[in-house]
UniProtKB/TrEMBL annotation, chain A:
Superkingdom of this protein's organism: Bacteria
Name of protein: ABC transporter ATP-binding protein
GO MF, one example: ATP binding
UniProtKB keywords: ATP-binding, Nucleotide-binding, Transport
Gene3D superfamilies referenced in this protein's UniProt entry, alphabetically: P-loop containing nucleotide triphosphate hydrolases
UniProt cross-references to SUPFAM superfamilies, sorted A to Z: P-loop containing nucleoside triphosphate hydrolases
UniProt entry tagged with the keyword ATP-binding: yes
PROSITE patterns attached to this UniProt entry: ABC_TRANSPORTER_1, ABC_TRANSPORTER_2
Domain ABC transporter per the UniProt entry, residue ranges: 2-237
Automatic annotation (TrEMBL), chain B:
Subcellular location: Cell membrane
ABC3 transporter permease C-terminal domain segment(s): 197-310
Membrane disposition: Multi-pass membrane protein
Transmembrane regions listed in the UniProt entry: 188-214, 247-269, 289-309, 330-350, 356-379, 408-433, 532-558, 589-613, 619-638
Protein name, as recorded: ABC3 transporter permease C-terminal domain-containing protein
Keywords: Cell membrane, Membrane, Transmembrane, Transmembrane helix
Signal peptide: none
Domain of life: Bacteria
Length: 256, 655
């Protein structure tokens, strides 16, 4: 469904991505791991159409999205993608239900019509009775579930998450991750998670690791995730051409 | 400690430097305006002092000279005349002259010399007899560079040196010892009251804005300061660090503002009030007062920063968390209403004494300051109502922001609201300027002692011949005969007006003859001055409002850059955010602008409403609102490029 080929992105002279291939299918969840500064977030930004790669291409349902205008990419992000970040994504002055309804309203849905699915989504995530609270009045886990509700209310094709549980304690993080995986599966959406946490990565169907802008190691394929796309991704691992500033990276073990 | 504070500022990145710079800029603007407001009060004082020699006190016993004054008119202009006659050789030289004027000498101010250049003697100078222009008056003799003054030297037995003056504008002949210890003209007292009002109107928004800017810096520092607390800094250390940082910015701003004031003084001196521009030196409040303002501003800013710091110092954790916005209490509205009512009642009760005027001014200033209490309260109510009814995302975001942080929204619009208040206050002030040019037929009249009236009229009639018809009447214009005095009136053509007036002035000692319309020259000058003053105040308030709007718009983008960035990532178009931010300003502006105009009208209607309505007030009002709204919106738009760069900032951060 979402695929990328030979992505290269430089910030200044340093390569953040140096020929990365990637693919994810509906219902699949991919964990992107790697050390700090390895290019995980850059990959996520390229895949989501937030930034344009210097070369390479990104396709959603066979349509190139990296060449679209900023306006069209914004529209795409609003309608087909959803995002979940570590923290800070909720507007502090809006009550929970309005935070969730906001993407629908941005799409032109009138406020009343937008609030209905928003409340339903909050109920599904166990936030009944907290619709009128502001982010500051919610616990970290609750706030993250509100952010999740907001991500899912537009019924996205792909959910991008960047350290979604980074600010939560282990139990709460596990809960949020569980809800995230369940609902994404329910919607038959794809999930791309950038994470440091091996426990999160282990719950995804597949894990890839990035080091210095390149895919590194053999992707771990989770149980029952032999969709073929994962194999394709493995097969089209970038050829290390020595262009990178630090040269070829040694292959490393992937968690678990 | 200072070094650490400086390093924190310098290394705090672009946004830390930007916000510190904004504080310094805001303080600079506020200081500039405060220096202006303070200097303005001294300026009228300087004019009053410099012209007080014309009302020098009566000598004990025998004086050295005789002094009398009058106001002569030429067309639509008036020329202050000072008649001087030496009683002995000890008569001191008057200010601005190097010798006591001898009989037959006329000394003119530069402006009067310009005016009389080309005017035949028979139309003006002959009024003083057979005279020669002997010199030019120096600046020490004049209220301002454009003042028209003629000092006429006369013999002690000249009738002009004995005839009583009945006009309020003249001083009857009196023996004097010297030209010191004179009384300043009452008009400067009146102007100083207006100037105090203007100073309050300019200083209150400037001070509020300067203080608010300081608090803005502190709030942007919240997170970092909380971190410092977490790593073990004591509350005292955090307070000191922040104060040092803020005060450094404020001192820089205050110095810059003071220097800027000195640089623009020659330009400000061009503003014509009471008939002329200023001597630049008059706008210098003196080193002590300038220093008081320059030092007072950073102190005010530090105090404001301390208030802003309370939340940080209480808790190292609490600042980043947002909770339900506290409702602003209705007591704010109550205070404003009570003060307004007190002001309105006071305008009805108190008389014209200085104490009463002082009470009124204090009440007025308090009411104006209380606008800052009711303002945020109103913004919050407005935000809540709009949030309930909003349909689109931009309106909803704007309304929730208003309800969440009404003080920030108020800071942006308070300038225009206060400008609207001023414009509303003066909208009803009649600003009619009367046409004083010569008509086809003119009547001029003068008061003379009743006993001499017939004889003087006959002599005058003989001298004027067919240029005018002279008669003794009971009243003409504002002049009315009583037991001791009579009115001599001459009817003439507009073309002969000045020559007839010249003949009459020479023949009739005492008050110079005048047309009824001549009294309007003074009121025209006053109306003109008030109009210019109002324009200056409005311009200043708008400048404050626009700068404060720009600064708070930039500040709010910086404050919320994380949220904006993430909203952009999630596909929110900048258009929606721009729209929301515009509405955040425009909605309260439309509501409060209207409300403040009405409040201003209501408050001052009892004082000046009775004077009648005049279209120029309505014009000022309309222009005020249009320019104010446009400038605030334009200033807010200045932050759009910043918003774009903040939104699209996806530069690599640590994963």
């Amino acid at each position: 469904m979402l695929s990328a080929r030979s992505l290269v992105k430089h910030f200044g002279t340093a390569p953040a991505l140096d020929g990365v291939d990637f693919a994810v299918a509906p219902g699949e969840s991919v964990a992107v791991t790697g050390p700090s500064g390895s290019g995980k977030s850059t990959l996520l930004h390229c895949l989501a159409g937030i930034i344009r790669p210097d070369s390479g291409e990104v396709r959603l349902y066979d349509e190139r999205i990296d060449t679209l205008s900023e306006r069209s990419r914004s529209h795409l992000r609003r309608t087909r993608f959803a995002f979940l970040f570590q923290f800070g994504q909720l507007l502090p002055e809006l009550p929970a239900e309005e935070n969730v309804a906001l993407p629908l309203m941005l799409g032109g849905t009138p406020r009343k019509a937008a609030l209905e699915p928003a409340r339903a989504q909050l109920r599904r995530l166990g936030l009944e009775g907290k619709e009128h609270r502001r982010p500051g009045e919610l616990s970290g886990g609750e706030a993250q579930r509100v952010a999740l509700a907001r991500a899912l209310v537009v019924r996205p094709a792909v959910v991008f998450a960047d350290e979604p549980t980074g600010a939560l304690d282990r139990t709460t993080g596990d809960q949020v991750m569980g809800v995230l995986l369940d609902t994404v599966a329910e919607l038959d959406a794809a999930l791309v998670v950038v994470t440091h946490d091996p426990r999160i990565a282990s719950r995804c169907t597949r894990t890839i690791e990035i080091r210095d802008g390149r895919l590194s190691g053999t992707p771990r394929t989770g149980d029952g995730a032999s969709t073929g796309l994962a194999d394709a991704a493995a097969a089209s691992r970038p050829v290390i051409d020595g262009d990178g500033r630090f040269g070829a990276e040694p292959v490393v073990e992937v968690w678990r | 400690m200072t070094e650490l504070a400086w390093r924190l500022t310098r290394l705090g990145g672009r946004s830390a430097l930007l916000s510190t710079g904004l504080t310094a800029l805001a303080v600079a603007v506020a200081t500039l305006l405060l220096q202006f407001a303070v200097a303005g009060n001294f300026a009228f004082d300087a004019r009053g002092d410099r012209t007080s020699w014309r009302d020098a006190p009566e000598a004990d016993g025998t004086g050295t000279a005789i002094l009398a004054t009058a106001v002569d008119h030429l067309g639509g202009d008036s020329i202050t005349r000072v008649d001087l006659a030496a009683l002995d050789g000890d008569a001191p030289a008057p200010p601005g002259m190097d010798a006591f004027p001898a009989p037959g000498e006329v000394w003119l101010s530069p402006a009067a010399a310009d005016l009389l250049d080309g005017v035949p003697e028979s139309e003006f100078l002959a009024r003083y007899g057979d005279v020669e222009v002997a010199g030019e008056l120096g600046a020490d003799a004049l209220a301002h560079p454009n003042e028209m003054v003629a000092v006429v030297g006369r013999a002690a037995d000249d009738p002009a040196m004995t005839a009583e003056r009945f006009s309020a504008d003249g001083v009857s002949p009196r023996e004097i010892d010297g030209f010191t210890r004179g009384r300043a003209d009452a008009v400067y007292g009146f102007y100083m009251i207006l100037m105090v009002l203007a100073a309050i109107l300019m200083a209150v928004p400037a001070a509020v804005f300067g203080a608010a800017a300081a608090r803005l810096t502190v709030s942007r520092r919240d997170e970092r300061l909380a971190t410092l607390r977490l790593i073990g800094a004591t509350p005292g250390q955090v307070v000191r660090l922040t104060l040092i940082e803020t005060v450094l910015a404020a001192v820089a701003g205050s110095v810059a503002g003071t220097v800027a004031w000195m640089l623009v003084t020659p330009l400000v001196a061009l503003i014509p009030i009471d008939g002329g521009r200023w001597f630049v030196a008059d706008l210098w409040a003196g080193a002590p007062w300038t220093a008081v303002v320059a030092l007072g501003v950073p102190v005010l800013v530090a105090g404001s920063a301390l208030i802003g710091l309370r939340s940080v110092v209480i808790s190292p954790l609490g600042v980043a968390r947002r909770v339900k916005p506290k409702g602003l209490r209705a007591i704010r509205a109550a205070v404003f209403v009570v003060l307004s009512i007190m002001f309105m009642v006071a305008t009805q009760l108190v008389g014209g004494s200085m104490v009463a005027v002082a009470i009124l001014i204090v009440l007025f200033a308090a009411t104006l300051a209380a606008v800052n209490l009711i303002g945020p309260w109103t913004v919050q109510r407005l935000g809540r109502i709009l949030a309930r009814t909003a349909k689109g995302p931009a309106r909803l975001l704007a309304a929730r922001r208003l309800a969440e942080d009404p003080k920030a929204a108020w800071r942006t619009v308070s300038g225009v609201a206060i400008a609207g208040f001023i414009a509303g206050s003066v909208a009803l002030f009649p600003m009619l300027v009367t046409d004083t040019s010569a008509q086809s037929t003119e009547q001029i009249a003068a008061m003379v002692p009743a006993a001499d009236a017939e004889a003087l009229a006959a002599a005058l009639s003989a001298e004027l011949g067919d240029r005018a018809e002279v008669e003794v009447v009971d009243s003409s214009g504002y002049l009315t005969a009583d037991g001791d005095s009579a009115v001599i009136e001459a009817t003439t053509s507009g073309a002969d007006l000045e020559s007839v007036r010249t003949t009459m002035t020479a023949a009739l000692p005492g008050d110079p003859p005048e047309r009824e319309i001549d009294s309007s020259i003074m009121s025209n000058r006053l109306v003109g001055s008030v109009r210019i003053g109002v324009t200056v105040v409005l311009a200043v308030v708008f400048a404050t409002a626009a700068v404060s709007a720009a600064i708070s718009a930039i500040g709010s983008v910086l404050d919320r850059r994380q949220t904006y960035r993430l909203l952009h990532l999630a596909g929110t178009p900048q258009r929606v955010l721009d729209q929301a931010r515009r509405q955040e300003t425009v909605l309260p502006l439309a509501f409060l602008g209207g409300a403040s105009v009405l409040t201003g009208m209501l408050l001052t209607a009892p004082v000046i409403g009775a004077m009648g309505f005049d279209v120029s007030g309505a014009l000022i009002l309309g222009a005020t609102l249009a320019i104010g709204t446009a400038s605030v919106i334009a200033a807010g738009a200045l932050s759009r490029p910043l918003l774009r760069s903040v939104m699209e900032d996806v530069s690599p951060r640590p994963d």
